[in-house]
Amino acid sequence: MADMTAQDAKRFDANVLRAFTTECLTACALPARDAAQVAGMMIDADLAGADAHGIFRLPQYVRRLNAGGVNPTPSIDVRKTAAATAIVDGDNGMGHLVMHRAVETAIELAGEAGVGWVGVRRSNHAGPASLYATMPMERGMIGIYSAVASANHMAIWGGSEPLLGTNPLAIGIPAGEFAPVVLDIATTMVSYGTIKSYALNGLELPKGWLIERTTGQPLTDPKRSSAGLLVPIGGYKGSGLALVLGILAGVLNGAAFGRDVIDFNADSSSETNTGHFILAIDVKRFQPLAAFQGELDRQLASLQASQTMPGFETIRLPGAERLRRVAERSRNGVPISAGLETALDKLAVDLNLGALSGRT
Predict the structure, then answer these.
(1) What is the pTM for the complete model shown?
(2) Domain 74-188+232-305's class?
């Protein structure tokens, strides 16, 4: 994703952002412990560079909590259905809380059976996909995650109706000396959160991200995104990938898909019944973890040392930039654009809290 905050960004310490986010969520009737957990995961997203899925989403989360669209005190139900499978009913709780429980369940199942597949229904937007794919990775497992996006902004290939979401896919694979391999992609050219960030910061969209719904021509004004469709990655391949991921995360779990998806950008009071799935694979069921990591390191070194194409200085491996960004932002602070800072200050006023801009 393009760096939208480089020119006007102000840096905030991650702990300051966590505290601010926790206060805002607590003001919306989330129990203190749950608010702190959600806030921690949101700012972890910002530290990793998922700028459209961290504190940027706070005003929207607050709006839905206050409008009754999200249950602040859910009774999350986990039902084991077989040796390696389970289904989680999130009781319309915050997606971060629901998915954290789902990942813990998948890791537990994988520890027992070698693999653990957990489906989720009645959840909500849960931030970036990589948050959940990397949790099994930290336990020496491979994590694979997807979800039905919280709004439809893409058409099935050849169609003009927005019946598919950005339905992301994230995979986390533990390495040894190299950075873990972490792939986190939307099935569209960019996430819709990126479109919203461009709109907030008054930036024009590059051609190739969004097209007019009626003409198929490029649309570069992010404030007119409701008249457009996000472009799938790889043409029909991205459209097909969004379809099958939506089936696995939505239809399989009894969650919303297609015309049943509630656009949480436009509707703050309805339950979205968002679906997700998380798969955890225990590496040591195939070979010793150290042996796998050593061989993976060897292969990654070979790829990184390969000859570059003209115009490229280095080979970029998925996950390496994420690790570098976490270290840099942990040290120097998270960049918050002027537009986002203004929106967060307004949110604080609405909640009778101290503004973010005055905090250090």
Answers:
(1) 0.94
(2) alpha beta
Contact 39, 334 (CB under 8 A): no
Three-state secondary-structure class, residue 88: strand
* Nearby residues of 29 by Cβ (< 8 Å), 6 or more positions away: 65, 72, 73
Low-confidence winner among 5-19, 152-166, 315-329 (lowest mean pLDDT):
5-19
In the block, residue with structure tokens 């129990």: 31
Residues 6+ apart with CB under 8 A from 40: 18
Single-letter residue type at 104: E
Which sign, positive or negative, has the C-alpha torsion 125, 127, 129, 133?
negative
pLDDT > 70? residue 334: yes
Q: DSSP labels for 283-319?
A: GGGTS-HHHHHHHHHHHHHHHHTSPPPTT-SSPPPTT
CATH of domain 6-67+326-360: 1.10.1530.10
HSE at residue 173, side-chain half, CA atoms within 13 A, is 17
Indicate the domain borders of the chain: 6-67+326-360, 74-188+232-305
Q: How many Å apart are CA 356 and CA 24, to the nearest integer?
A: 11
Q: Rounded CA gap, 319 and 273, in Å?
A: 30
Residue 1 has a pLDDT of 41
Q: Are 245 and 167 in contact (CB under 8 A)?
A: yes
Q: How confident is the model at residue 200 (pLDDT cuts 50, 70, 90)?
A: confident
